Automatic annotation (TrEMBL):
Species of origin: Azospirillum doebereinerae
GO CC annotation terms, alphabetical: cytosol
Domain of life: Bacteria
UniProt catalytic activity: [(1->4)-alpha-D-glucosyl](n) + ADP-alpha-D-glucose = [(1->4)-alpha-D-glucosyl](n+1) + ADP + H(+)
Name recorded for this polypeptide: Glycogen synthase
C-alpha cells in the first residue's frame, strides 16, 4: 500500500501545533503496519536543511500555481521516512513561521503556496508523474493546506489523468481553519470557473480549500470520534455541517496517538528524574525542578496545575485567568507556557506579578520545558471550548499528571472523569466539566484539590493514567483499513 502523505508541517523540521506531531508519528506507524508511506512537504529552509541525503527526482515542474519553476527533491527524516520536498524558493524560502510573515499576518500569497503543494501531490497521479519510479495508491492530505488535492483530481482530468486514479483522503485537524480566498483567484489556482458553485469549491462567495476537500475527497477523517460528530452540528461545523452530514458515511473519527518514543517519563532526557507507574519517586524531583524553574515557592504539598497551550479564547484560557486567584487562595500553584492573544498574554503576566510565589508564566514555546512541565505538574488544564483531539492531555496521562478537561472532542474521548462510579470501579483518569464557565472549572478544581489531599487515592489514579495506551499502532490499523477500501480506484 503506497501512500503519499501531504502535510504543511512535520516535527522536528517545522512545527506550529499538533499537526506536526501527527505528521512525524503516524507515517512510521503506518510503515510498521505494512504500508509504504512517503511525505510531501513544502520546501521551507528548515525542511531542506533537515532532510538527509536530499537529491532531485524527475524533471523540473513548470506549471505550479503561482510558480514558474520548481524541483521535487527526496530525502529522509530522522525517523527514516522518505520525504519529498517541493523546492519552490519563490513560495517557501522565507524565515520563521510557515504561515505568517514578520508582521504576524498571513503571507499574502498563502493561497498560491498551498495550492502549489496540492498541485504537486495531484501530479503523482498523472501519466507523467513527478516521480516516475513511485506512484501512490492513496493521496492523504491534511487540513485546508491540502484541501485542493482531490479537487484537482476531479476537476482537471486533462492535467492529472493517469493509468489509474489513487484514492483520496482528507483529514480535518481543526475545522475552524478553512483556507478562504477570493473568487477571482479561480484561474490563478488552475481551477475551472464552472467549479465555483455550491456543489464544488464555492463557500459563501469565496473559494474554500477545506470545503473543496470535504466535497471531492473519497473519504474524510478527523482526529477523534466525538469531534467527527460535533462538526456535523451548527455549534462546531463552522458552516460545513450540512455538507459533512450528507457525507457522514464517508466520515470517520480516528483518534490521534502519542509517540511514546518521545513522551515517556521512564526515558525522557529533558526531565529532572525519570519514573514509572511502579516507582513514582522521580515525579517529586521533577516537581521541585519545575517550581524552581518558574520561581515558585518550593512546596511539595501544593497541588501544581499547568497549562501548555495557545493563549486564546478558543482554548478556554480566559476561564483559567478567571479561576486562578481562587485556586491560589486554596493553596494551589499554576505554571503557564504559551503565546497567543495579546490580551491573554498580558493577563497571565499580570497574574504572575500578583502571585509571584504561586504563579509562573513563560510567553512563547519551549519544547524541552514542555516536557519538564508535564513531568513536574500534578494537574494539567485543557479547558478548551472546542478541541478536535488534543495531544497534551494524552502526554499528561503518560506522565501521571492528571488532566482536567472540558468535555468536548478528543478530550471527552481520552479522559475518564473521576465521578463516583468511575472512582469506585477504578477507571477514572482525570476530571471533566461540561459548560465553558469559570464556575464549572472551579468546581472541578475543587474536586481535584480534595482528591489531592488523599495521597493514596491520588497516586492510584496517577498509576492508572500512566498505563493507558494511546500509541499509534491502533490508529495506524484503522487508517490501513480505510486505505484498502479506496486504493487505486478507476
Amino acid at each position: 500500500m503506497r501512500v503519499l502523505y501531504a502535510t504543511s508541517e512535520c516535527y522536528p523540521l517545522v512545527k506550529t501545533g499538533g499537526l506536526a506531531d501527527v505528521s512525524a508519528a503516524l507515517p512510521p506507524a503506518l510503515n510498521a503496519a505494512g504500508a509504504d508511506v512517503r511525505l510531501l512537504l513544502p520546501g521551507y529552509p528548515a525542511v531542506l536543511n533537515g532532510l538527509s541525503n536530499l537529491h532531485e527526482v524527475g524533471d523540473l515542474i513548470t506549471d505550479l500555481p503561482g510558480c514558474d519553476r520548481a524541483r521535487l527533491l527526496i530525502g529522509r527524516t530522522a525517523d527514516g521516512v522518505l520525504a519529498y520536498a517541493l523546492d519552490a524558493p519563490s513560495l517557501y524560502n522565507r524565515p520563521g513561521n510557515p504561515y505568517l510573515g514578520p508582521d504576524g499576518q498571513d503571507w499574502p500569497d498563502n493561497a498560491l503556496r498551498f495550492a502549489a503543494l496540492a498541485w504537486a501531490a495531484a501530479g503523482f497521479a498523472a501519466e507523467n508523474s513527478y516521480d516516475p519510479w513511485w506512484r501512490p495508491d492513496v493521496l492523504h492530505g491534511h487540513d485546508w493546506q491540502a484541501g485542493l488535492i482531490p479537487a484537482y483530481l476531479a476537476l482537471r482530468p486533462d492535467r492529472f489523468a493517469g493509468p489509474f486514479r489513487p484514492g483520496t483522503v482528507l483529514t480535518i485537524h481543526n475545522i475552524a481553519y478553512q483556507g478562504l480566498v477570493g473568487a477571482w483567484m479561480m484561474g490563478d489556482l488552475g481551477l475551472p470557473s464552472t467549479a465555483f458553485r455550491v456543489d464544488g469549491v464555492e463557500f459563501y462567495g469565496q473559494i474554500g480549500y477545506l470545503k473543496a476537500g470535504c466535497y471531492y475527497a473519497d473519504r474524510l477523517t478527523t482526529v477523534s470520534p466525538t469531534y467527527a460528530h460535533e462538526i456535523q452540528t451548527p455549534e462546531h461545523g463552522t458552516g460545513l455541517q450540512g455538507l459533512l452530514a450528507t457525507r457522514s458515511d464517508d466520515l470517520s473519527g480516528i483518534l490521534n496517538g502519542v509517540d511514546y518514543g518521545i513522551w515517556d517519563p521512564s526515558r525522557d532526557p529533558h526531565i529532572a528524574a525519570r519514573y514509572t507507574p511502579d516507582d513514582l519517586g522521580g515525579k517529586d524531583a521533577c516537581k521541585a525542578d519545575l517550581q524552581s524553574a518558574f520561581g515558585l515557592e518550593r512546596r511539595p504539598d501544593a497541588p501544581l496545575a499547568a497549562v501548555v497551550s495557545r493563549l486564546t479564547w478558543h482554548k478556554g484560557l480566559d476561564l483559567v485567568l478567571e479561576a486562578a486567584a481562587q485556586w491560589v487562595a486554596w493553596g494551589g500553584q499554576l505554571v503557564v507556557l504559551g503565546s497567543g492573544d495579546p490580551a491573554s498574554e498580558a493577563g497571565f503576566r499580570h497574574l504572575a506579578q500578583w502571585h509571584p510565589h504561586s504563579v509562573g508564566v513563560r510567553i512563547g514555546y519551549d519544547e524541552p520545558l514542555s516536557h519538564r512541565i508535564q513531568a513536574g505538574s500534578d494537574l494539567f488544564l485543557v479547558p478548551s471550548r472546542s478541541e478536535p483531539c488534543g495531544l497534551t492531555q494524552m502526554y499528561a496521562l503518560k506522565y501521571g499528571t492528571l488532566p482536567l478537561v472540558r468535555r468536548t472532542g478528543g478530550l471527552a474521548d481520552t479522559v475518564i472523569d473521576a465521578n463516583p462510579a468511575a472512582a469506585n470501579d477504578g477507571s477514572a483518569t482525570g476530571f471533566q466539566f461540561v459548560n465553558a464557565s469559570a464556575q464549572e472549572l472551579l468546581w472541578s478544581l475543587r474536586r481535584a484539590m480534595n482528591l489531592y489531599r488523599k495521597p493514596e487515592r491520588w497516586q492510584a489514579m496517577q498509576r492508572r493514567a500512566m498505563t493507558r495506551d494511546f500509541g499509534w499502532s491502533g490508529p495506524a490499523e484503522e487508517y490501513m483499513e480505510l486505505y484498502r477500501s479506496i486504493a487505486g480506484r478507476d
